[in-house]
Design a protein that fits this description.
CATH class of chain B: Alpha Beta
Number of helices of chain B: 10
Number of helices of chain A: 6
Distance between the termini of chain A: 20 Å
CATH architecture of chain A: 3-Layer(aba) Sandwich
Mean pLDDT of chain A: 94
Oligomer: heterodimer
Radius of gyration of chain B: 17 Å
Mean pLDDT of chain B: 91
Strand order of the largest sheet of chain A: 2-1-3-4-14-13-12-9
Structural class of chain A: alpha/beta
């Protein structure tokens, strides 16, 4: 039986993520874990997160999970969600600048309100469309291009290497809403809160076998 | 194309049971929160809001079980309001599976709670409910005041100033309910909704008074709301969430279909 570990480092509710994965992958063993050895032993790792980048990095250190998370995104199918996407980058502008995990070159910036787009509030909250930039990617299987997913965030990622952009969304301009790089896929939106499309993406992750 | 305006059914929950009637065709148990939530999710609801109206202290913990069960089976965002007094209550709800909590009375009595909560769990989880009623005093400009306890107690606070203050303290979203309109089916209080939507940077949910699908459209087009919340028109089967969205789309509003 495959094991999917949802990394628990004290950054918010993980139950929804785990329940959604159990829902689509009943034959996998899904566990919420803050144990480095369990994460190391898992076949796949989901790295969620919400809140602030500073707290996220601090908690990873406090829980002594930096090494196991780094090992996971270098070695096994890895799904980052929301803050779990942002902290993969070099740094975040949040809290006057926070060094992050630097798996992806680039930074994380805050949305700024635009007087020409008064309807664009911050946070970006709700269901928005994701244009698939790597439409052949296994995690987009059976999901239509432009499908809507649930977002809630005030910061967005800016990868230097545009070839890793797997999804784009329009809010105060086009921004990168998903990345794919080797065995890593990470989304700004919340698949666990995105009804059928989100469940499909999680199902795709549970079956994903990156080369 | 871009961000969709949201349609949010609101369910009252008393001691773990949905009350005020859910009138779906062939629903097995109208009082079962999980079944009601699943029906709304299947119908295309963008989020769900549960308002815990449990009065008895003995039954206070039932809401956590409800949230846990619903969050295990319905994969859309879930907001829970009612009876929240401290950060510990918020943490318990989020840990049970809620995505956001809605605070009203506690924010009025203790505005620092909003700051404390948003610092601990993030602004995106904190909805402040603005329950406002028009106040007309001879010789003064009409204005809206914040009320608590289901509209029974006035606070003397100006609704627009209060809304701005709440966002400065860290509210990530505002749920604006017109107590004059709530239950009247005569439509949202559009000037109130608009005034708050224009005054703050965060999303605004319009609530109170929906009787027709046109009312939902007006909330967005004239009220400037980012989301519309309604209870009775959905519960009693007058309209489905899908019909609401079709009507909004026909009015030129972007929705998730």
């Amino acid at each position: 039986m495959k094991t999917i570990a949802v990394v628990d480092y004290g950054m918010g509710n993980l139950r929804s993520v785990a329940k959604a994965v159990e829902h689509v992958a009943p034959r996998a063993r899904t566990l919420i874990s803050s144990s480095a050895s369990e994460i190391a032993a898992a076949d796949k790792v989901i790295f969620p997160g919400q809140g602030a980048a500073r707290d996220c990095m601090a908690h990873l250190r406090d829980y002594d999970l930096l090494a196991s998370v780094e090992s996971a995104f270098h070695n096994k199918p890895f799904l980052g969600i929301c803050m779990g996407l942002q902290v993969l980058f070099d740094s975040s502008d949040e809290n006057d600048g926070i060094d992050c995990l630097a798996y992806v070159a680039g930074k994380v910036s805050r949305f700024e309100r635009d007087s020409d787009l008064p309807e664009c509030k911050i946070p970006h909250m709700g269901w928005n469309e994701v244009q698939q930039q790597q439409s052949g990617h296994a995690l987009w299987n059976n999901i239509s291009d432009g499908a809507r997913f649930y977002f809630v965030h005030s910061y967005y990622v800016q990868p230097k290497d545009k070839s890793i952009v797997s999804g784009e969304t329009d809010y105060l301009g086009q921004f990168c809403s998903a990345i794919a790089k080797d065995n890593v896929f990470a989304t700004q939106f919340h698949p666990e809160k995105s009804a059928a499309n989100g469940l499909q993406l999680l199902a795709n992750f549970s079956q994903w076998q990156p080369n | 194309m871009g961000l969709a305006k949201r349609v949010i059914p609101c369910l009252d929950v008393d001691a773990g049971r949905v009350v005020k009637g859910i009138n779906f065709v062939d629903i097995v148990d109208a009082g079962d929160p999980v079944e009601a939530a699943r029906r709304y999710g299947d119908a295309g609801a963008d989020e769900l809001t549960f308002l815990d109206i449990t009065a008895s202290v003995d039954n206070r913990n039932t809401i956590y079980e409800v949230v846990e069960q619903v969050a295990s089976e319905v994969f859309i965002p879930l907001t829970v309001g009612g009876g929240i007094r401290e950060v510990a209550d918020i943490r318990k709800l989020l840990n049970a599976g809620a995505d956001k909590v809605s605070i009203n009375t506690a924010a009025v009595h203790n505005p620092a709670l909003v700051r404390e909560a948003s610092e601990h769990v993030g602004s995106q989880c904190i909805v402040v409910a603005i329950d406002a009623k028009g106040v007309h005093v001879d010789g003064e400009k009409p204005r809206w005041e914040i009320f608590t306890h289901g509209g029974r107690k006035t606070t003397g606070l100006d609704a627009i100033e209060w809304a701005v203050k709440m966002t400065k303290l860290g509210a990530g979203e505002l749920l604006v309910t017109s107590m004059d309109r709530d239950g009247t089916k005569s439509g949202f209080n559009l000037p109130l909704t608009r005034a708050i939507a224009d005054a703050v940077d965060v999303p605004v949910i319009a609530s109170g008074g929906v009787g027709t699908l046109d009312h939902l459209c007006e909330g967005v087009l004239q009220g400037g709301a980012d989301a519309v919340l309604a209870a009775s028109i959905f519960h009693f089967g007058e309209y489905t969430v899908a019909e609401a969205k079709q009507a909004m789309r026909a009015a030129g509003i972007e929705v998730r279909l």
